[in-house]
Amino acid sequence: MIEIENLSKRYGDKVAVDDLSFTVAPGKVTGFLGPNGAGKSTTMRMVLGLDRPTAGRALVAGRPYAEHSRPLMKVGALLDAKGVNGARTAYHHLLALAAANGIPASRVHEVLDMTGLSSVARKRTKGFSLGMGQRLGIAAALLGKPEIVVLDEPVNGLDPEGVVWVRELMKQLAADGCTVLVSSHLMNEMAVTADHLVIIAKGRLLVDSAMSDFIVQHSRHSVLTRVADPEALREALDAEGIRSERLSDGRIEALEVGVEQVGKIAHARQIAVYEMAAQTASLEEAFMQLTSQQTEYRATLEVQR
Ligand SMILES: Nc1ncnc2c1ncn2[C@@H]1O[C@H](COP(=O)(O)OP(=O)(O)OP(=O)(O)O)[C@@H](O)[C@H]1O
Predict the structure, then answer these.
(1) How large is the ipTM?
(2) Confidence (pTM)
(3) Which of 96, 129, 137, 140 has a CA between 20 and 30 Å from the CA of residue 158?
(4) 41, 46, 36, 40: which is closest to 7 by C-alpha?
């Protein structure tokens, strides 16, 4: 378990993490989302004892990271995949890490297999692609068979096959009882990976909920119609127990329903339909809407005419 309690981090005047509290439970993948600069990496660094909190605390398996005598066997982490000595081979990089942490060499072969790196294990890591570097970082994170795994943007640079592999790996770790915290700024990726969702923006907590609850609340299906008699259609929908809204341009938005149903209802009441379209608000849109006021770096698109 990871417990984050009233955690704050300031860099000079800059508040990177602001009184953040949440718990990451075992047996689940917890997605940690936020726009660029939200404070995800800073939070993860504090969880891993790499940054000192200005206030509050982060506990892993009941105590601060630094107080664990063999932390690699409690917590595995992928933070910055580039922090590897490029002159070493993948095998020697992992072997050195294993030796320093009292982990048998046989485990190095296991993690190389698990991450699909066995065939390049004897190659120097400086020639590795971004995706191979990510795999090596994940191999290092898994070396100590940790009960807690913290991954910062693990699918960054991976090809589609690699993305699916990371997704399945995280699910398997959670199924084996691990606590898995994974950061991302891609809502759709998290929707198919994570069981639980924590969203932050500007260092503050915005959402802490089961992923299924978030999906139910935010993936809104509706049908937009333009009809001859909007009020008659609303009455007809209401009679069928379907909620609807009248938009300012006179169109009707029927909520949580499909086009066929709305079409049949209009037909049964002989209401002429001029226009009808299914609408789906994606989770990505919901996430962007939630965080749009909180985003530190936002591009302004100017169209030159
Ligand atoms: N060492 C530092 N010194 C000063 N400011 C920092 C430092 N590290 C992070 N920050 C600032 O803290 C804020 C949070 O940064 P952080 O990297 O934690 O965000 P993030 O959510 O991981 O973003 P991204 O998705 O872009 O990686 C940003 O405004 C960043 O500029």
Answers:
(1) 0.96
(2) 0.81
(3) 96
(4) 46
